[in-house]
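FAQ
Q: What does a multi-component entry look like?
A: The components come first, one per line:
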Amino acid sequence: MAGTATVIKLSSLTKRYGSTVGIEQLDISVASGEVFGFLGPNGAGKTTTIRCLVGLLRPTAGQVRVLGLDPVADHRRLASALGYLPGELRLYPELTGHHTLRLLADLQGAATPRRGELCDRLGLSPADLGRTVLEYSRGMKQKLGLVQALQHDPELVILDEPTEGLDPLVQETFFELLTEATAAGRTVLLSSHVLPEVQRACGRVAIVRAGRLVTVQTVAALREARARRVRLTFADGLGPRPLGAAERWSPRWDGDRVVLLVPPDELVTALRDLLTLPVADLTVEEAGLDEAFLDLYRTPTPEVRP
Amino acid sequence: MRSRFPLLWLALHRRRRMLVALLLGMVVFETLIVVIASTLSPGQLFAGGGRTPPGAFKAFSGSTGDVSIASYPGLLGAGLVHPFWIALQLTVIGSLAAAAVAADVESGTIELLMARPVSRNRLLAERTAALAIASVALNAAATLVVAAGVALSPKLHHAVSIGGVFVAGLLGCAFALSLTGPALAVSAVGRRKSQVVGATIALGAVGFAVNFVALAWSKAAPLRYVSAFHYYAPGDALAHGTVPWAALGVLTAVGVAGIAVAFRLLARRDLAP
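Then the predicted structure of the entire assembly, as tokens:
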């Protein structure tokens, strides 16, 4: 990121609601032109972080800078360069799609050069736009949400669970739009718990869990570091049994078969221990990216991993 | 208006049917009061048993002075402090004050609005303007109906001046403002519509009850100063035709102070569902 302008900078960002911690000591930087993934299970603090970024929430401690501005103090200047799709998109049910887009464009106070093109590509016909939002399906609301976030061609796009409710064809169009946005030099923050979409769209990923940052890595590095899936079949028909030191890899038993996820740097030691048991068959393969993420989600803290 | 003041337009547009119904209700109700007042004399209505109404009934004629409900100004004043009139006012104030901030926070739509280059001050200013327009329209409807009745009925015109009707209308606007300020302040910190509507109803209902008790029970008389209904006296305005500047000032000051507090509270709060 050296030499590249920082678009988002979170320094020790903390947000508490009374005694409840929303996010704690979050440090993240996103460079201009990046598609940055923000991953975590539900309740991890993703939406809280995003609301701090767009100035809806005031941080309890720490600092937020977006495009060099304070999202609360410089809200109006920042918001004019921002496109935002909330995770829980709420619209006015009695307004038509057309009225909704016009209202939000009026509030944005900017031209909307891409509205028509986006509606066409995402499959929102003039007839759809003439109906009230009350009549919209979840997917149509999400399409409208994407159009309102992108219609003014913002410099920074923040999308919270953007593919929620979209059918596979529209998801394809969404990823095309992301590619075009980055090609045009836009910066995108994409929050999700859908791993394949992050894998596909993002260069770097921050993973949060229970309000804390677990790791920030490139998707490629995360793949490299992911665990190995070790499958063992025992020959003696005795079923589940203690695995000694390998118990720490959360074995999942199915009769005489067991599956473990072992970090790559401990694989040889683990196999050496396991092969002292009456093993009839053994396979080792790379765990899927989803399992790697789940492993990070589950681990109490990354530092104390065995 | 839609593109220049989208937040104001949105607040009124979403409640347009309710507002039209309330305006019609106000027109019909005040017409009824005017017809009754011009058809039956107040003496026939209230002194049939040879007794004059108790002093506390002044609470129902909108008077803090000497205007009895058994008089034309008192009877017309009763139409401007009647529970139905109060209910219409509270409905407008409660619903539009709730719509100012709390309703959008509750529904989650605040996220879409406030992720735009829209300041919190602008949000509240446009929403306050929407409430002011609706309140003024409601009071104007009541005032115009009563004014028309007074102009058309010689009996009423003899007892009540047109100027007095407009002073009563002005006081009605100030009364609405005095409830609007606190209701907006609740909305500015609230997360639910019901909090704002509840607070508005409590202010109106408790205010009326306190004023009535203060008029009925001499030991509770000092309490009347905390009720907006002590300052809102349309019966007196209709009888005397003069602007009660002190009362008008108190009602306006309470409303303006409430609005100022609302701006301050909104600037400090988190805006998320």
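Q: Is there any commentary attached?
A: Sometimes. For this entry: Chain A touches chain B through 28 residues (CB under 8 Å).
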